[in-house]
Design a protein that fits this description.
Elements (H helix, E strand, L loop, with lengths): L1 H33 L22 H8 L6 H10 L4 E6 L2 E6 L2 H9 L4 E3 L3 H7 L9 H16 L1 H23 L4 E2 H18 L4 H18 L10 H29 L8 H7 L10 H32 L1 H17 L9 H4 L3 H14 L4 E6 L3 E3 L2 E3 L4 E5 L1 H4 L39 H18 E5 L6 E2 L5 E2 L4 E6 L1
Parallel strand pairs: 2-8
Antiparallel strand pairs: 1-2, 3-5, 4-12, 5-8, 6-7, 9-12, 10-11
Helix pairs in contact: 5-10, 6-7, 7-8, 7-17, 8-12, 9-10, 10-12, 12-15, 12-17, 13-15
Length: about 500
């Protein structure tokens, strides 16, 4: 009898200790991050900071590694209602997730109260002196320097011929290859283009080495910052180290060339970065130049490659849209003077239907699912407080795929853009405000030039059309779109 009583008491004690431990763990983040806010904590948005250290990251990763990435925010909304603002613990920090377009617009355009708030892992990988890590004033200065040479009309007109020639060569080559990874091919193509713009480089060995390291880097940008062998972040840090070493040698060589060839004629963005100086004559140091190069070369080929792939896939899956897009390109070709060689910027701006196809792809895929900000001071939004120092996650998927703004949002339908202007803040594929993607026009141009030649002369046959989709670090088929390109 006594033995039975002792066993029962022991079991009860174990249960009590387990429950107490669970309670302590569940409330550890509350104790560390909410309790210190005192009375202000009662004005925090609804939500849950989750477990210590990992917070809500397991739920996030589980959703984005499933076939339903939106289950992450949907579960939060189902638990706490449609407030459009929720507290969470994400990427190592107490955070506020925004799903309301109005709140997102305010955060992205209010530089006085919000600054870039990217996770430490992203800063470490992309660089503290790139656009993701510098102050608002420095960001504005560097954006002014780099925007025109990348996105300006004169620059775009200059790049068209180079982009077009490389697109034609790539399509011809792929049509003779048989099965290959279409996404991998596109990423190599867009990387060649951005390398030319920034470094005037066409070295195959350099491009292959850099592109290989960028692949590892990207897998770590949205991963948990676990610096241990076998984890994506550990491999990404190694890739960054290799990239920095390669860029440093390129910077050193360019400086030597410039010293020899004085005065030096500007050739590319590298020359612009070496020349820029502020009103006090201060120039960028090597770390600043390398971080900007690393960021631009990464963003400048990843987004273009993925969006080109998905636009091509969607058109192939919807013959009625494909035929309409092709007819527009044939009409542009018919109106082209016989003496004209290649596409012009004016022709690109006449591709009205194709632009709807591309922006519908941008909406549906939402290449950048979230943007990070940080509150510089306590801010009130929708009667809730965002405490100073807390991260703010602008969740683009929440309105790009919201049936309230886009009926049947998971359907690819370019015609939804006919005579349609989206509600302010419900379509932001390139961000908003002072931190709008500085290469957005170049990316759109690359996609349009590729589709112009593809629609007129080629078709794609996917080997695994039902291939499952991965959502991290970016939305893509698991087989990288294994396909054959067929000339017609």
């Amino acid at each position: 009898m006594e033995a039975g009583t002792s066993a029962a008491a022991l079991a009860a004690a174990v249960v009590a200790v387990s429950l107490a431990l669970r309670w302590a763990l569940r409330n550890a983040n509350w104790y560390m991050h909410e309790r210190r806010l005192r009375e202000k904590r009662h004005r925090l948005p609804p939500g849950d900071l989750g477990w210590p250290i990992i917070g809500n990251m397991w739920s996030f990763l589980r959703a984005f590694k499933s076939s339903d990435p939106d289950s992450f925010t949907n579960s939060i909304i189902s638990r706490y209602g449609r407030t459009g603002i929720y507290k969470a613990f994400m990427f190592g920090s107490p955070s506020v997730i925004l799903t309301s377009p109005d709140a997102c617009r305010r955060v992205l355009t209010d530089d006085e109260k919000f600054k870039p708030g990217w996770p430490i892992s992203t800063l470490e990988l992309i660089g503290k002196k790139s656009f993701v890590g510098i102050s608002y004033e420095e960001h504005k200065r560097l954006r002014r320097l780099t925007a025109s040479p990348v996105n300006g009309p004169e620059a775009l007109s200059m790049y068209i011929h180079y982009i077009e020639e490389n697109v034609k060569l790539a399509l011809e080559k792929w049509s003779r290859m048989g099965e290959f990874e279409f996404l991998t091919g596109l990423r190599k193509l867009t990387f060649r283009i951005i390398m030319h713009i920034f470094l005037s480089s066409e070295s195959e060995s350099v491009m292959e080495a850099l592109e290989r390291e960028y692949t590892s880097l990207n897998y770590g940008v949205r991963a948990m910052a676990v610096n241990f062998p076998g984890f994506a972040y550990y491999n990404a840090l190694k890739a960054r180290k290799n990239l920095v070493a390669m860029f440093q040698s390129i910077v050193d060589e360019r400086r030597r060339q410039r010293d020899k060839d004085f005065p030096h004629k500007r050739r590319d963005m590298m020359d612009a970065l070496l020349e820029v100086e502020d009103e006090n004559g201060r120039r960028l140091d090597d770390e600043g130049i390398i971080d900007l190069l690393l960021m631009y070369l990464n963003a400048g080929h990843e987004s273009s490659g993925h969006i080109t792939m998905w636009t091509t896939i969607f058109l192939q899956e919807h013959p009625e849209f494909l035929e309409k897009a092709r007819a527009e390109q044939e009409e542009i070709l018919r109106r082209r003077p016989i003496s004209q060689q290649g596409m012009t910027l004016n022709e690109y701006r006449q591709m009205h239907y194709l632009s709807k196809v591309i922006i519908e792809t941008l909406r549906l895929i939402t290449f950048s699912l979230v943007v990070f900000r940080e509150a510089k001071t306590d801010v009130t939004i929708s009667d809730y407080i965002i405490p100073q120092g807390w991260k703010v996650l602008v969740w683009f998927r929440s309105f790009h795929l919201n049936p309230e703004y886009y009926p049947n949002p998971k359907k690819f339908d370019p015609s939804r853009w006919d005579n349609f202007t989206p509600k302010a803040g419900t379509f932001m594929p390139f961000g908003l405000g002072s931190h709008l993607c500085p290469g957005n026009e170049l990316a759109m141009l690359e996609v349009a030039i590729f589709l112009h030649h593809f629609l007129l002369n080629y078709r794609i046959d996917r080997v695994n059309p039902q291939c499952p989709v991965m959502y991290l670090p970016h939305t893509r088929p698991k087989d990288n779109c294994l396909a054959r390109i067929r000339k017609i």
